[in-house]
Amino acid sequence: MDILDKIVIQKKNHDKYLKQKINKNQKIKKVKSKFIQSIKNQLNRGNNALIVEFKRFSPSVNKFKNINYLQEIITQYQESKCCCISILTDRNFGGSLNDILIAKKITSKPILRKDFIINKSQILESKFYGADAILLIAKILTKKELSDLYKYAVKINLDVLIEIENESEIKKIDKINPKIIGINNRDLRKQKIDINKSIDLSKKLKNKIVIGESGITDKNIKKIKTKSEIKSFLVGGSILNNNNRINFINRLAKA
Predict the structure, then answer these.
(1) Which of 22-31, 121-130, 170-179 is predicted least confidently?
(2) Which candidate in 80, 214, 220, 228 is catalytic?
(3) Is 6 a catalytic residue?
C-alpha cells in the first residue's frame, strides 16, 4: 500500500466524524470566489499566474528548511506578486484547517484548500473555514464522484481546481467542463517528477486555464512556456526552501 492509498483510507475513516461535526444547517455565506478571477487578472497583466503553496513537510521531504511560522510565510506571500495561495491541510503534510483561518487574517489573496477531498462534508467544511477554492484529485475519485463534488462546490460558491496526471484522467472530466485544470508533474504514487507531463497533456486540453504543478523552478517555467501555452503554475517546495521568497516569487512571475 502506497502513501496515496493510506491517505484515502484516512479520509474515509474520518468521514463519519466529519458528518457529525459539520452543521449542515449553518448558514453558508454567499460570497463568490475570486480564485479563478485572480488567476485571469494576473495573466491579463502579462505575468505568469502563480499559486504559491504552504506546507510544513511532505512524503518526499521531511521538513522544508526555511519554515518558521505560518504567519511569516503568508505575510511574505501577501507582499509578493503571486495571485493565490494554496494551503495543504492534510496532516501528512503537517497541515490543518486552522492554517486557513490564520492565513485569512493576514492575506487578502484567495486561498485554495489543497487536500484529498472525497466527500461533500469536506467541501462544506472548506467553505466554513474560509477557503475560496478546493482541489479535486482525479486519481482518487470516480467520474461520477468528480462530477457530483464539482457541482456541489460550485453550488456553494467555491472555485474548483481539478488535478490530473495522465490522459485517462482527462476522460474522467470530459462532461464536467472545468474552467481550470492542474497537471501534476509528480507521480503521486511513485513520487517522481516529469515536467513533460504538463507539456504533453496540456495540448489535449482546449479552452482551459492549465496549471503546471510540481517541479516548478524558473528554468522549468521557461521550458514549459516554450513548449506549451501554460502560463499558470502552482509552486511549493522551491519557494519554501528559498532564502528570499518574495524576490523568488516575483522572479517566477516574470520568467
Answers:
(1) 22-31
(2) 214
(3) no
Q: What Å distances lie between residue 43 and 50, 145, 227, 230, CA to CA? A: 10, 31, 18, 10
Residue 219 clears pLDDT 60, i.e. is over it: yes
The model carries a pTM of: 0.89
Is 213 marked active-site? yes
Does 34 participate in catalysis according to the annotation?
A: no
Q: Is 214 one of the annotated active-site residues of the chain?
A: yes
Catalytic-labelled residue, pool 33, 47, 55, 109: 55
Dist. CA 186–CA 53, nearest whole Å:
15
Nearest C-alpha neighbor of 146 from the set 133, 161, 157, 158? 161
Residue 192 pLDDT: 81
Torsion of CA 87, 231, 217, 106, to 10 degrees: -30
Catalytic residue among 34, 114, 120, 139: 114
Handedness of CA 230, 231, 235, 241 (dihedral sign): positive
The 10s digit of each residue's pLDDT in 229-241 is 999 999 988 898 8
Active site residue 169: no
As a whole number, the mean pLDDT across the chain is 89
User: What are the residue ranges of helices labelled H in 26-69?
Assistant: 35-44
